[in-house]
Design goal:
The protein has no helices and eleven strands. By secondary structure, it is mostly beta strands. The strands form two sheets. Strands 2, 4, 5, 6, 9, 10 and 11 form a seven-stranded mixed beta sheet that branches. It has a four-stranded antiparallel beta sheet with strand order 1-3-8-7, with no helix packed on it.
Length: 112
Amino acid sequence: QVQLQESGPGLVKPSQTLSLTCTVSGGSITTSYYAWSWVRQPPGKGLEWMGSILYNGGTAYSPSLKSRTSISRDTAKNMYLQMNSLKPEDTAVYYCNIDIYWGQGIQVTVSS
C-alpha cells in the first residue's frame, strides 16, 4: 500500500525558508509517474496547487509562487519543497500528491 508522508517544521518565522520532505513508502511508485506535486490549503480556503516535478525531471510551478518555490526529487522515495521569503499568508496545510495518492498533510504556521 502506497503511503506518502510529509515532514518538516511546523513553525517558521517570516522571511525564513521552509523546507519540507515527502517520503514515499510501500507500493510501486516510480519516477515514471507523470507528476509529483505539492499542494497547500490555507485556513478557510481551497486547495492550491504549488508545483510539480514531472516524470522527465522537469518542473512546473504556480505563477504566483514560482519566484519563491523549488521542487526537487532525489529518488523514487523522496520529494522536496523549498520556499523562501515566507509570509504569514503562507500559513497552510501542505500536502504531497502523486497520482491518486495523498499524504496526510503537515500544518505549517508562519509567525514571529
